[in-house]
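Appendix C. Worked example: Galectin
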Amino acid sequence: MCTVQRIPYLGPIYGGLREGVSIYIQGSIPEDITRFFLNLLCGESESSDIALHFNPRFDGWDKVVFNSCEGGSWGSEDKIRDMPFSKGEAFEMVIMATSQEYQIKVNGNDFYTFQHRLPLERVCAMQIDGDVCIQTINVIGVRLPTPEALVSMLWALGFALCSGANMFIQHHEF
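Step 2, the predicted output written as structure tokens:
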């Protein structure tokens, strides 16, 4: 039973993707799986361009399909006939963004490298759907604005501190 992250999932990647950022996903595969997918999106809607489509398929010819979609047109599929997931088993997956590619690891093992077809800087959201249970999604290496930049952004948006007011900002860089 999946209890932590509701599927389907569609959410922002705060700060977007850039070189060195990793997405860590922990989940499990149900016994009755047919397929699931994870999309890295260039917008926060289901109709956005897809920079990375990761699609494990348990269809008798078990495989993982990689692709991208721009302007509603799918690219050519990369089909990997090596299934890193097992029915009824937990998994850990890491997607690391480099300047040229996405490096995908499953359960600590290098699985596949998918070359960028769309600019990395456009990626700002993630979508997960299908037969999968997700317990954890962590984006590691996101650079938050400095406290000074945050105050400037708030000021530009019309937020001002009253005389004698305090603002506390915690900033953790990974």
